[in-house]
């Protein structure tokens, strides 16, 4: 079973126990690590058995994958943001985005009526803004807590945009499993996923030690802060509020003509 996830502290944190063999299972699991937009695009080919996936991308993949009720990345009080060298009006501007199918990009399309999207890897965006290659940049992952170190300012907080309109938590990423995998194997992987998350939440420092492999220059305190921001009670077991939030997000996207609302199938 090929299980794909990102080279980010939060994914490393939640998958630590699984990767290190602390959770026993009959499944033969092989881990593949790529950035989220690469995984989104690989999922379109249907070759990944389990993968981290942007909520946005699921709209195009409901025929191939089911959503797992464990492993979601959910913002609650924080989320993607747009930064620039100074406070500017964003409509019509060149904005670096971390991928066409990321949920952050979907949120930006919901928040703005017109902008020129410039796609690039998420970890190249801050430098592109600093060099003036784009007017602003849409940040995901650790950029949300490190941008001020680069003398950039927050122009648009997409958590505030989202919460102001919905009052719901912000679902950004999910883990999905291929539909054609036998049901008993799907359920067994879900068990392993939940136990791995539970282990990380109960052994935070140990899991953070492993996540430091993907620190990208962040201090241990920042890695711990970032990992525990996005691996939380929502991650262990998806509550109804997150399901409702995904429904609402796709309703808004369909109403604006961005994407057709998918049927949510959650294991």
TrEMBL record:
It comes from the Archaea. Its EC number is 4.1.99.29. Pfam families: VitK2_biosynth. Substrate binds at residues 103-104. The active site is at 141 (proton acceptor). SUPFAM superfamilies: Periplasmic binding protein-like II. It catalyses: cyclic dehypoxanthinylfutalosinate = 1,4-dihydroxy-6-naphthoate + dihydroxyacetone. It is an enzyme of class 4 (lyase). Pathway: Quinol/quinone metabolism; menaquinone biosynthesis. GO terms for biological process: menaquinone biosynthetic process. GO terms for molecular function: carbon-carbon lyase activity. Keywords: Lyase, Menaquinone biosynthesis. Belongs to the MqnA/MqnD family. MqnD subfamily. Catalyzes the conversion of cyclic dehypoxanthine futalosine (cyclic DHFL) into 1,4-dihydroxy-6-naphthoate, a step in the biosynthesis of menaquinone (MK, vitamin K2). HAMAP family: MqnD (MF_00996). This is 1,4-dihydroxy-6-naphtoate synthase. It comes from Archaeoglobus profundus (strain DSM 5631 / JCM 9629 / NBRC 100127 / Av18). The gene is mqnD.
């Amino acid at each position: 079973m090929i299980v794909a996830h990102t080279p980010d502290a939060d994914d490393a944190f939640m998958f630590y126990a699984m990767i290190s063999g602390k959770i026993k299972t009959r499944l033969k699991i092989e881990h593949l690590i790529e950035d989220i937009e690469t995984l989104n695009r690989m999922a379109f080919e249907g070759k990944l058995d389990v993968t981290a996936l942007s909520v946005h991308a699921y709209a195009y993949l409901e025929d191939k994958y089911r959503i797992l009720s464990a492993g979601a990345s959910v913002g609650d009080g924080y989320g993607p943001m747009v930064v620039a060298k100074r406070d500017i009006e964003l409509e019509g501007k060149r904005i670096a985005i971390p991928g066409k199918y990321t949920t952050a990009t979907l949120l930006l399309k919901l928040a703005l009526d017109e902008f020129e999207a410039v796609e690039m890897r998420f970890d190249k965006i801050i430098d592109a803004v600093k060099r003036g290659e784009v007017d602003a940049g849409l940040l995901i992952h650790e950029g949300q807590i490190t941008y001020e170190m680069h003398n950039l300012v927050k122009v648009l907080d997409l958590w505030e945009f989202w919460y102001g309109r919905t009052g719901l938590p912000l679902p950004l990423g999910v883990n999905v499993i291929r539909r054609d995998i036998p049901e008993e194997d799907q359920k067994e992987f879900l068990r392993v996923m939940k136990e791995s998350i539970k282990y990380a939440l109960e052994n935070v420092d140990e899991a953070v030690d492993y996540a430091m492999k993907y620190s990208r220059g962040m201090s241990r305190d920042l890695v711990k802060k970032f990992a525990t921001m996005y691996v939380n009670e929502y991650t262990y077991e998806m509550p109804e509020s997150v399901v409702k939030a995904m429904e609402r997000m796709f309703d808004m996207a369909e109403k604006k003509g961005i994407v057709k609302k998918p049927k949510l199938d959650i294991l």
